[in-house]
Amino acid sequence: MPGSLLKYGARRLIFDNSPRLLLISLFYVLMVTLISMLTYRLPGRINEQDILSRLASGEIPGILIIYSNFRPIGAFLACLLLFINPIINFGFLSFCVKTNRSQDTDYKDLLNGFLFFSKVFMIFLITTIYIFLWSLLLIIPGIVASYRYRQAYYILLDDPRKGVMQCIEESKAMMHGSKVDLLTIDISFIGWYVLDFLISIMMPLPFPFPIVSVWLSPYIGLTHAAFYEDRVTRVAV
What is the pLDDT averaged over residues 96-123? Predict the structure, then answer.
């Protein structure tokens, strides 16, 4: 199915399920933004701005300067938040899939990732390692790898009994010949990302808040969910 039709269907679902859908999306965006802010402001976090300022002035900061404000507790909390982020994203993915299937949804869907915490985290960890290793060759192989594993979370959601590697392998098979299609869909959202960034930095708030993401997140999430459904149908045929 063409990406334009998948996106049209996503827009219709947003309109048909608003304002409830947008309120749940707002809650999701608030959680993701809060996690990002906490990670950035944790005590003991390395100060990138200080390092960049030193580099700009011609100074090469040493190891002691780089880790002068490092604290183990801050690093631990940063890692914890890093682990939670894919869990929250999985919950929103679950919400989008259920919405796309006209099933009942609730705020609690955003926490579904915690029901499969170990498998979601392992998929995140293994695919991140794979993508990193492929990226060591060139940028293009890394991008190809990232699209190769994109359906693993959906496959796990549809059948939580499946193992982590089974979900990854089935994603590879499902995305064979379809990676460019999904890439084209993602590229079509670039204008929205730019708009979201510009509005977030121009809003008179004490911190940047991606207000456009309240619309954009379900728009992209529902489009991706429809893409998965389309691929499942093709594989079944």
Answer: 90
